[in-house]
Amino acid sequence: MEQASFFLVSQSPHLPVSPSPRLPVSPSPHLHSLPSTPYPLLPTLYPVQLQNVIIAHKAGDRGSRNLAEKAAKQLEQMGCHVMMGPSGAKDNPYPVFLASTSKPIDLAIVLGGDGTALTAARHLSPDGIPILAINAGGHLGFLTEPLELFNSESLIDGETVWERLTNDRYAIERRMMLQAHIYDGDDRNAEPDSEKFLALNDMCIKPAAADRMITSILEVEIDGEIIDQYQGDGLLVSTPTGSTCYNVSANGPIVHSGMAAITIAPICPLSLSSRPIVIPPGSTVSIWPLGDYELNTKLWNDGVLATSIWPGQRVDVRMADCQAKFIILRDNYSYYQTLREKLLWAGSRIRYEHHHTRN
């Protein structure tokens, strides 16, 4: 067996900074089932090989770092090549991870909260790398598996995490993503003036200034047809995954994460008639900033600054050509239970008896 190696990515501030319901897992030994989704179901693939694994832990969180080091040592003992590094606002290990190996990456273990998982999805989804996100140092944890399942002493149906992965006892959930490009003018056949920006939660177009709050005027087209001009704090274009994040704070709808759809929600609009709208996933949303004479309008992907938008430019947002793949270890996962618990709906705190049985 080839000797295992351990690679630690330093916390260098000079590294580039980028910026469903899931069905309950069946007791079958082959668990690569997916939720009801317009995407084709992933077939039963193969057990995770655990030959080339990357581990990203939440930067500045000692607990997630210690857990990452412990997991790396366990994987090393199994003959696995491991790369490990911090992920945060000033630490982006993924370009180093991807450039440091010529072999396919079998698994990405992400230890942190939803923000850490979002960063992993933006960087790893184009290469189809599955992500095992663990809530270590996070808060809500919509995208993560519970920390208890990852402890080496914990057993899931009598198996450790590594045994469950190598024995093909897990599910993969695919989540829709968005991609955005900046274009000059109205030429629909022009080449983009920017790189491709990806988001798992949302694309946000809003102004930013150091000295005051700015009102934006944004004209929105869907598939070339003008829909409205929104005046307010900005505009959100969200996935179903992102519908429970900034979108729901902007009074947008919660969209089942097993669906493919795009939600457009104005942020604090100055008109009561400006309402959120849900559109088909094949649509292209074009946003034009108007009256931005001080060049304050920015594009943000998953809350991270992507680029500035100059006068005469537009942002085109559409469904991405890649999907985020998350590994599910739990046998009894329920999307609605997640909503009840994370959003503190009454059903998660108060239990009422019901009499739904039939005679």
Tell me briefly what this model is:
The protein is 14% helix and 31% strand. By secondary structure, it is of the alpha+beta class. The strands form three sheets. It has a six-stranded antiparallel β-sheet with strand order 7-6-17-14-9-10, with helices on one face. It has a six-stranded antiparallel β-sheet with strand order 13-12-11-8-15-16, with no helix packed on it.
Succession of helices and strands? EEHEHEHEHEEEEEEHEEEEEEH
The name of the CATH topology of the largest domain is Rossmann fold
Low-pLDDT parts are 1-44
What does the overall shape look like? globular
**Largest beta-sheet characterization:** 6 strands, antiparallel
Quick one: CATH class of the largest domain? Answer: Alpha Beta
The total strand number stands at 17
Helix and strand composition category: alpha+beta
Overall number of domains: 2
Q: Could you give the order of strands across the largest sheet?
A: 7-6-17-14-9-10
| Nearest-integer average pLDDT | 84
Report the sheet-strand fraction: 25-35%
Fourth CATH level, the homologous superfamily of the largest domain: Probable inorganic polyphosphate/atp-NAD kinase, domain 1
Query: Oligomeric state of the chains?
Result: single chain
Which bin fits the share of residues in helices? 10-25%
Q: In angstroms, what separates the terminal alpha carbons? A: 63 Å
Count of helical regions: 6
Radius of gyration: 21 Å
